[in-house]
Amino acid sequence: MTSNHTLISRFPHLRRDFAASLVVFLVALPLCVGVAVASGVPAELGLVTGIVGGLVTGLMRGSSLQVSGPAAGLTVLVFEAVKEFGLPVLGVIVLLTGLLQVAMGLLRLGRYFRAISVSVVEGMLAGIGLVLIAGQLYPALSAKAPDSGLGKIAGLPGAFLDAFGDGGALASLAVCAGTIAVLLLWRHTPAKVRAVPGPLAAVGLATLAALALSLPVATVEVRGLLDSVQPPPLSAFGELAGAGLLGTVLAFALIASAESLFSAAAVDRLHSGPRTQYNRELVAQGVGNTVCGLLGALPMTAVIVRSAANVQAGARTKASRVLHGLWLLLFAALLPGVLAHIPVPALAGILIHAGAKLVPVRALAALWREHRGEALVLAVTAVSIVAVSMFEGVLIGLALAVLKTAWEASHVRLEVVDKGAGPVQAHLSGNATFLRLPKILDSLESLPQDRPVRLDLSGLHHLDHACRTALRNWAARHSAAGTEPVELVTAA
To answer: Where is each SLC26A/SulP transporter domain found (predicted)?
Structure first.
């Protein structure tokens, strides 16, 4: 009795954290496996990343309730990296990503990720969601997916037509559709039933149906935990000489860090506990990715689905996420054979559902009504990711966001008051930069040539050199027409 009392006094939230850890484990299990399979790597590597996210990153300071693991948001990038460089080099990429994140955290750059345009991040996630949905429809149809994002989308009509004459493809599609249906309907079930997380219920029911009906569908290939963990060989580090690999590392680091820190901001809104320390969280994510790289596993990010489940299940401290990593380790060590019965189209259904959540259709419609520039940045970023690649798409989105900001920052207004007698009063206000110079000159040159002009510049917050020179030249030309010299009024 005394020992129990001592344990409770030392860990007052242990009961809540223990219960929350089981919920997070049940949510994380199918997602870890599904992300690994979709990324083109052994299923066990997804579990390894989930274990590291719990036992390593989970112990570190940063965000107390945020849960880390393999994320659907990096699936497309990982698949492309494995296809281009091979699985052994993936460990090198993830290792360098982790070291770069640690360096950024130590240099206190974490807070700067909060300055990234929300439209770019949402566009990035929407692009990933579209490619993820298109890519996972192929395993749902027992077909091989094309390599490019545009190829995946363009090939879907043909893949569906081919499936209608193939019994195995139709069975696979039925399992995928059934999994998605369970996920959509699960929140309408009684509260006691909802104690089982939707993703686990959907995969469990799909597995039972496939076994009971002997459906001809592909299942997860199992290699065993120790066989799957392959630290990168020294020869894999030779790829560092190529610019392509370094660009991939940079893409992993930027996207994983942005997704983790945006997730942290979202999780902070869900609870009233300690706020996220962004630089420490970036270091924690980096240490986790460094360990994952050494083990040859998938990269990790903080994942909003698991983190929200953790908060909603009543977690109070980091103990819940550490314990969820322990449950994943025990499952991978003691029950790996269970994975071999999971139908691949069921995992495809999980990821199609996750991908659909990444595409903010309603938010985009509202954004278009209120802030069309932001909506354009979001849409262009998403389309660029689908059409070109993840890294280039994000760069295009960032460049467009910077241009949009520069354009808006150069907003200038010219008010003209002409009372019919005396000088024409022209008042410039805002930020006069070279971006708006054509508009300013067009307006000034439309003023009457035979009237004196008083140009008031006192309302300008900024006047760059190009505008200052152009205004002086305009004033000289206007005065040369035989009227009184233009009166320039500047701030005191």
So the answer is: 14-381
